[in-house]
Amino acid sequence: MRHPRKPLRAAAIGAASTALLVSTALGAAPGAQAAPGAPGSAAAARQAAGVAFTDIPGSGGITLKGNVFTPRDAGPSRRYPVIVLPTSWAMPQFEYIAQAKKLADSGYVVVSYTSRGFWLSGGKIETAGPPDIADASKVIDWALAHTPADPERVGMAGVSYGAGISLMSSAFDKRIKAVVAMSGWADLIESIYSRQTQHRQAAGVLSGLGSLTGRPGDELQAVLKDFLGSNLAKEKDMLAWGAKRSPATYLDEINAGGAAIMLGNAWGDSIFPPDQYAKFYERLTGPKRLELRPGDHATAEGTGLFGLPNDVWGNAHRWFDHHLKGAANGIDREQPVQLKARTGGGYESYPDWAAVQRTRHTVPLEGTRTVRAGVDSGANGGTALLSNTLDQFLKLPPMVSVPLLPRSYAAVWQTGPYGSAQRVRGSVKLHTTLTSDKESGTAVAYLYDVGPLGVGKLVSQAPYTFHGREPGRAFGVDLNLFATSYDVPAGHRLALVVDTVDPLYIAHNPAGARLTFSSPAGDPSSLSVPVRG
């Protein structure tokens, strides 16, 4: 399989970042040095103020490359809470060194390890499959046997892949009392195959980085080949593979374990969009917290990996302090849903996710629009890992001139100018009636904030794919655009644009297909927009 160049550039950036992570973390720790001693020995794991690089036995007889930080005052008679940190996809064991040192300095034993199949750890990439979950338990076993870790105070955390493994592990290892899952997934299928649409760039990045930095397992290679090759005959197998690796599948077990779970994500995460986290959060019954901020995949946590001040990691420390140390730091008294708008401002607090989008207004979508499929109109969701990072730091989301969009390839509806700012919070819902002259097709819906000059800034988007429909027969479509938090200024308007091609996704539009969007009198088309007063 040929991979795009972007993963190659990402791998180079990742390698440079790894070097910076190590030098920053170790340079910021006066007197810290790699501890001598036999790998895996108790002496090596208890060097004051330093990091011990060690081999840790994984499941199935493999070896995991790890490191251990221990509190400065560690002694044989004292026990400390322990936090286990599995690495992100394609990242080595150095990833969390800066945060691990901070945690150790505040009284934690911290064990980080390179996830199986990557870099120098043994085995093959299993994508949070059973061997990965067994590895996490083996690492906890090792920590309890070789460090002054307290078996009653075990936590797990991670970014991206490490977040998924941590969440999954809390379903199977009841020793885990607290989890912080940053930029991860709860539902792997909804993340990269939403509404039967393959997220091409997301899967391509994961595939490319996995091949460059690790050893993909046979099952993963087969699934990626079928997924990127649109082998719909294997869809059932792919769905089963994804469900087996989704924390949402094991929600009952996670709730039964009672671990305190904090979830953090970015509004523009192009690998794991935030909606699936929000749904999962609502179904958790134990102590829980949800934080959503501007950015793309893992960008909200990124500065913290270099030891810089970072809200996500700061709250992660508070979460562990309260739930593993019993600290009365007030995090349990704060409203558990914390959001920051993409357009600026401080945090907004809510009692639950439902309260975020409780108030809605309806925008009628009148008339009929017919578009020719298979041609990119110019409206698109941007580039994975890049566009939403630009939005985060420079307030530059993907933009388009709405008046210049070719109406033969893009269906467009617009509101009038708003007299006051519209604070969009949550998932915008599209309801329409679709008629296609082919049995399959893909449509992508975009919501834009349109200024006086007609320039539209992307507020949200989502794809929709259908198969097996009778040509010429109308059917209803209900589509939730990806959740967001965006303030539309007074004097601006909202525009809904629907076309059929976006580089983010694999489209299923036969040659010559036409899609018609209508609004029957008995079932009018509309847009339901969640707004805050």
Automatic annotation (TrEMBL):
Q: Which residues form the Xaa-Pro dipeptidyl-peptidase C-terminal domain?
A: 317-527
Q: Which domain of life is it from?
A: Bacteria
Q: Which Pfam families match?
A: Peptidase_S15 (PF02129), PepX_C (PF08530)
Gene3D superfamilies cross-referenced by the UniProt entry: alpha/beta hydrolase (3.40.50.1820), Galactose-binding domain-like (2.60.120.260)
Note the SUPFAM superfamilies from the entry.
alpha/beta-Hydrolases, Galactose-binding domain-like
Q: Which InterPro entries match?
A: AB_hydrolase_fold (IPR029058), FrsA_esterase (IPR050261), Galactose-bd-like_sf (IPR008979), Xaa-Pro-like_dom (IPR000383), Xaa-Pro_dipept_C (IPR013736)
Q: Which UniProt keywords apply?
A: Hydrolase, Signal
Q: Which residues form the signal peptide?
A: 1-34
The GO terms describing molecular function are: hydrolase activity
SMART domains in the record, alphabetically? PepX_C
Of which family is this protein a member?
Answer: Belongs to the AB hydrolase superfamily.
Q: Which PANTHER family match?
A: DIENELACTONE HYDROLASE DOMAIN-CONTAINING PROTEIN-RELATED, POLYKETIDE TRANSFERASE AF380
Q: What is this protein called?
A: CocE/NonD family hydrolase
User: What does the organism's lineage look like at the top?
Assistant: Bacteria, Bacillati, Actinomycetota, Actinomycetes, Kitasatosporales
